[in-house]
Amino acid sequence: MIPVTPLANEKPSALATDISERLNAAIREHLLSAFAPDSTKTLRSFSAPEAAELLGVSGQFMRKLHSEGTIPEPEDVRGGRRFYTAQEVWDAREILEKSSRKKGRYLPRRSGDEKLQVWQLMNFKGGSSKSTTSIHLAHYFALRGYRVLVVDLDPQGSLTSMCGISPEIEFDGLTVYDAIRYDDPVSMADVVVPTYFPGLSIAPSRLMLSEFETESAVHSNPDQPFFTRIRNALSQVEGDFDLVLMDSPPQ
Ligand SMILES: Nc1ncnc2c1ncn2[C@@H]1O[C@H](COP(=O)(O)OP(=O)(O)OP(=O)(O)O)[C@@H](O)[C@H]1O
Ligand SMILES: [Mg+2]
Fold first, then answer.
1. Which tens digit of pLDDT belongs to each residue from 171-211?
2. Distance from residue 130's CA to the centre of ligand 1 (Å)
3. How far, in Å, are 51, 84, 85 from residue 43 at the CA level?
4. What is the pLDDT, as a whole number, of residue 33?
5. Atom 10, ligand 1: which residue's CA is nearest?
6. 46-99: CATH topology
7. Cα–Cα dist 37/132, whole Å
């Protein structure tokens, strides 16, 4: 340890303590407002024209579906105008798909021998919009009726935060590390959690994921090479999704 010698006539401890206390108070205040236990992320509702566009039908056809009672009224009707939650749009998809002559018109899920799509966004540069692009793609496809899984492979956990989970503060949930670790991994099905955004689930991340790299360096079992770990984890939940988007750390 390097001894810190105060300058002549200076009383560093009082000044340092004062700065430290003020910084700590400011950080505490920020954390309390940013991570209040009851503040959860929510998704806005969609106007009737937006809902029609998401379903790929005209506004006139939507009104007809309501007047015939084919799809239920949304909970939120203000001044004669309908506002739909993303879940209500999903429910309408399910109903319309059942009576649709063209399979997949409203629920464009993969079927038969169509394979799970796995996309990974990467760029060997920090701050180049990997996480932002991942979440935008995920929202886009989830709103269009695909079952989307985002896998946060960045120990920074930005994508996890974007999905409404705060990796900065302790949370008890499992993370993707728990599914790919070499020692007694858990099932990926236990790691994946639904988000506030209908159609979108996440395998969250936090700092612990960085251990995987260290463990991979010392792990010598040729039956479990590091590059098969994520593939194996994904295969355990493959049937539940149409698209997997993986966000990478800069390295
Ligand atoms: N199209 C955009 N227009 C403006 N700002 C953007 C755009 N895309 C991303 N950003 C901003 O750039 C910053 C970095 O984006 P992001 O976190 O997605 O990058 P990243 O590549 O995931 O970073 P990291 O390497 O740290 O994981 C963020 O503040 C984000 O809001
Ligand atoms: Mg990122």
1. 678 999 999 999 899 999 999 999 999 999 999 999 889 99
2. 7
3. 14, 11, 8
4. 77
5. 129
6. Multidrug-efflux Transporter Regulator; Chain: A; Domain 2 (1.10.1660)
7. 25
The structural domains of the chain, with segments of one domain joined by +, span 46-99, 117-247
Level-2 CATH architecture, domain 117-247: 3-Layer(aba) Sandwich (3.40)
The predicted-structure confidence for 73-112, as pLDDT tens digits, reads as follows 999 999 989 999 999 999 999 999 998 999 899 999 898 8
Residues contacting 153, CB < 8 A, separation 6+: 120, 176, 205, 209, 230, 246, 247, 248, 249
**Amino acid identity, residue 68?**
E
- Is residue 8 pLDDT above 60, yes or no? no
Nearest CA to ligand 1 atom 2: 129
- Phi-psi domain of 166 (left: phi exceeds 0; alpha: psi -120 through 50; beta: other): beta
What is the number of other CB atoms lying within 10 angstroms of the CB of residue 89? 23
Q: How far is the CA of 131 from the centre of ligand 1 (A)?
A: 7
Residue 225: what pLDDT?
83
